[in-house]
Amino acid sequence: xxxxxxxxxxxxxxxxxxxxxxxxxxxxxxxxxxxxxxxxxxxxxxxxxxxxxxxxxxxxxxxxxxxxxxxxxxxxxxxxxxxxxxxxxxxxxxxxxxxxxxxxxxxxxxxxxxxxxxxxxxxxxxxxxxxxxxxxxxxxxxxxxxxxxxxxxxxxxxxxxxxxxxxxxxxxxxxxxxxxxxxxxxxxxxxxxxxxxxxxxxxxxxxxxxx
Amino acid sequence: xxxxxxxxxxxxxxxxxxxxxxxxxxxxxxxxxxxxxxxxxxxxxxxxxxxxxxxxxxxxxxxxxxxxxxxxxxxxxxxxxxxxxxxxxxxxxxxxxxxxxxxxxxxxxxxxxxxxxxxxxxxxxxxxxxxxxxxxxxxxxxxxxxxxxxxxxxxxxxxxxxxxxxxxxxxxxxxxxxxxxxxxxxxxxxxxxxxxxxxxxxxxxxxxxxxxxxxx
Lengths: 211, 216
Hints:
The complex is a heterodimer.
Chain A: E1 2-11, E2 14-24, E3 29-33, H1 40-47, E4 55-60, E5 63-65, E6 77-80, H2 92-102, H3 108-121, H4 137-149, E7 155-159, H5 167-182, E8 186-190, H6 194-200, E9 203-206
Parallel strand pairs in A: 3-8, 3-9, 6-7, 7-8
Antiparallel strand pairs in A: 1-2, 1-4, 4-5
Chain B: H1 4-43, H2 48-63, H3 66-76, H4 86-111, H5 115-123, H6 128-158, H7 170-181, H8 185-211
């Protein structure tokens, strides 16, 4: 269970997130919705440790942690970025196996085997030797999911997962997210797409711009 | 008249000069490329002091003629007790000068890699050096290759500046023969040899660019 208490984030003097508290249960899907400028992405960046916070505590299973400062090899939060940010110089397989090998010190063979299993579950069989520029948007997103999962995070976060996809692919993403829930993954989805949010959410967090 | 006999007479001295030109060329690249890469990382570093010092260095090196730098290193530094042999002085000046140009090229390359790439590496828990080695360098290399190639071609010809501190490179060998025999033929040959050298460089650079063409 992830618990966040009294999170406040400012950019200079502008308060983006004001004293926000919420919880996510294990294998729950939390969607964070709200208008542009409400700080959805900033909130995600704080949770994933890309931004320091001004105030607030993070607890994972009642153990306090700091996403920004903890830089050990244990991955708590995985992120699927809005524009995926796959490494263009690496093949699909290397994108997925790089961090497990370098950070978790998995052997090449093990990392590869796990990656191939994961890729095939995400319907990416046969794509492992392609480079990101050879993939469609939906395929890139699934590679990004596989890459994040390979670090065995406790929680997987998505930033606007439907924004760059054709409407037909929305259903596919929601199936993937629900499928991962079956596997026990806790997920946080930031989106402005209300239909999509309503479809996948177990719990919804509405954020509004701070006045 | 282009007599083969005359050419075969002066060719050995021209080739000896070419060897010196190539030595300066190769050692400058071997020294200046890694140094330029490190300086380039420093130019985008968060540590202000490092940035200021490197900016000053780049300004100094790009702001004065390489010819002047050669003269200062060989004739000037001995005044403060630093004495270089001719050849070492040439390498010292060339490596510093070219590392400044390379540093600026690498800075540009580093800054054109999407910030999101660093963030993706960070959430995957890759360390600073792992990110540099596996993500940054391959991407930056591809971006900077054409500009580096330009400087490499320039270096072939810039190496002729070493005549000013009395090193016998290709151009100097041609000059000597030309003045002695009162003919332009040696200089014509010098031109041909420079063209051959740059042609080889161009070919090699193309091959390296091709090597990086497997991804976009």
